Amino acid sequence: MFENLSSKLQETFKRLRGKGKLTEADVSEALREVRLALLEADVNFRVVKDFVARVKEKAVGIEVLEALSPGQQVIKIVNDEITALLGGTNARLSIAPKPPTVVLMVGLQGAGKTTASGKLSAWLKKQGKRPLLVAADVYRPAAIKQLQVLGQQLDVPVFSLGSDADPVDIARAGVESAVKQGRDVVLVDTAGRLQVDDALMQELENIKAAVHPHEILLVVDAMTGQEAVSVAETFNQRLGIDGVVITKLDSDTRGGAALSVRAVTGRPIKFVGTGEKLDALEPFHPDRMASRILGMGDVLSLIEKAQAQFDEKQAMEMSQKMRKAEFTLDDFLQQLRQVRQMGPLDQLLGMLPGMGQLKQLKNVKVDEKELVHVEAIIQSMTAQERRSPDIINGSRRKRIARGSGTTVQEVNRLLRQFEESKKMMKQFAGMEKAMRKAGRVPFGPR
Predict the structure, then answer these.
(1) d(CA 37, CA 15)
(2) Angle at 306 between CA 303 and CA 309, to 5 degrees
(3) Which position has the higher pLDDT, 433 or 291?
(4) Is the peptide bond before 100 cis (omega within 30 degrees of 0)?
């Protein structure tokens, strides 16, 4: 996401950093590149015009032109303005003081409302909530069934009155059912509609009047680009939306919809879909996204992903094993599985500061199949082989390769890499010990 915009902005600012002092002409030239990059990223023209004007007003001030590092100052201004454009701070989901909280999911056909509803229910469960999904899309064939399948996979109940019932009645009865079941959040999945379809928009207004939702979330497909802006404007005028969920943000290298929708509607982006898995929905953080666009990484999100997957006790035990060089292939497999659960590796790499600027990583796609092969190789070993890889001779290597559907060369490569990583761990452990003796390690377990 934002791949093209990110690379163009980073290239522009690289030239600025190299200048000892900036003239107004330098700033104007850089902003011309910024404007072109934003337009190519499919950001709305009005949004681009206002954005560049605001940056220029701040960037040609005396404090920038005479600053010790003027290039960095301009980058900071652009970073601050992108953050403001995206909403400034993380906008949380409004929770009703008296349950249940009613959330109305609306949007165009094919925007991904049903899947987004399921993903949001999974996220709410992690927050300790007890959600109920309400199937109010009676027009799309199999929409109700799709929601029921998602509910089954996520262990979230789905309320339905069938495809012959009126959507307004379904929504009302769904909320009543949630009260009886003690459910504290109701997610009403409505039918996708064109914003020009007056009858269906009126139906949404009727549902709103019937259930008085605490949140109306507009689901927008990032791939629709400029169309997302007019969709958001119309839905906001008719319903008064409270926030936006952007789906398929991981598939769109331009990302202009995310930058435009917030600016045009004044409504915050609350969640973004970052993949196909049912846990690939994240709260949207404008400051973190701005940082990623400018190639400065998103370490906070990376830490949160790690904390969600790594057990603290296991992490401490693993740390001790690494220090004593007792790390086995079983431990390696456990770590690999936890890392894979954090999400696609190329996305994780993008969260590390400066990674986006490394040319050798620009077109690198991490092959997830390689990780599957590694897992298969380790699982084809006996418990003794995983604990003591040095006993794995030629005949054992052939057996492991056959059992894992890989080659002997792949088995050899994994064992070699594992031994090299163990050597590195020994070196680090030795360095840490020496530093502790010298009193130069002020933190960490003693």
Answers:
(1) 15
(2) 150
(3) 291
(4) yes
Angstrom distance (rounded) from CA 31 to CA 20 = 18
Q: Copy the structure tokens of residue 13.
A: 């600012």
The structure tokens 């490569």 sit at 413
Taking the domains of the chain in order of start, what are their residue ranges?
3-85, 101-296, 311-437
Strands 215-221 and 243-247: parallel
DSSP designation for 381? S
Sign of the C-alpha dihedral computed for residues 150, 156, 157 and 158 taken in this order = negative
Q: 246: which DSSP letter?
A: E
For 54-97, write each residue's pLDDT tens digit.
888 887 765 555 555 666 777 778 888 888 888 888 888 889 98
Return the closest-CA partner of residue 231 out of 201, 202, 203: 201
* pTM score: 0.65
**Antiparallel, parallel or unpaired: β 269-273 and 281-283:** antiparallel
- 284 and 72 Cβ atoms separated by less than 8 Å: no
Answer left, alpha or beta for residue 370, where phi above 0 means left and psi between -120 and 50 means alpha: alpha
Q: Is 99 exposed, middle or buried (0-12, 13-18, 19+ CB in 10 A)?
A: middle
pLDDT for position 299: 46
- Give pLDDT tens digits for 97-120: 898 999 999 988 888 899 999 999
The CATH-assigned architecture of domain 101-296 is: 3-Layer(aba) Sandwich (3.40)
Sign of the dihedral through C-alpha 308, 311, 317, 321: negative
Residue with tokens 């949630």: 178
Q: Spell out the CATH class of 311-437.
A: mainly alpha
- Distance of alpha carbon 73 from alpha carbon 27, whole angstroms: 11
Cβ-based neighbours of 71, under 8 Å, separated by 6 or more = 13, 16, 17, 18, 19, 22
Q: Please compute Rg for the chain using Cα positions.
A: 26
Longest CA–CA span in the chain (Å) reads 77
3-85 topology per CATH? Four Helix Bundle (Hemerythrin (Met), subunit A) (1.20.120)
User: Got the DSSP string for 135-195?
Assistant: EE--SSTTHHHHHHHHHHHHT--EE---TTS-HHHHHHHHHHHHHHHT-SEEEEEEPP--T
In this structure, what token pair is assigned to residue 9? Answer: 């902005």
d(CA 277, CA 281): 9
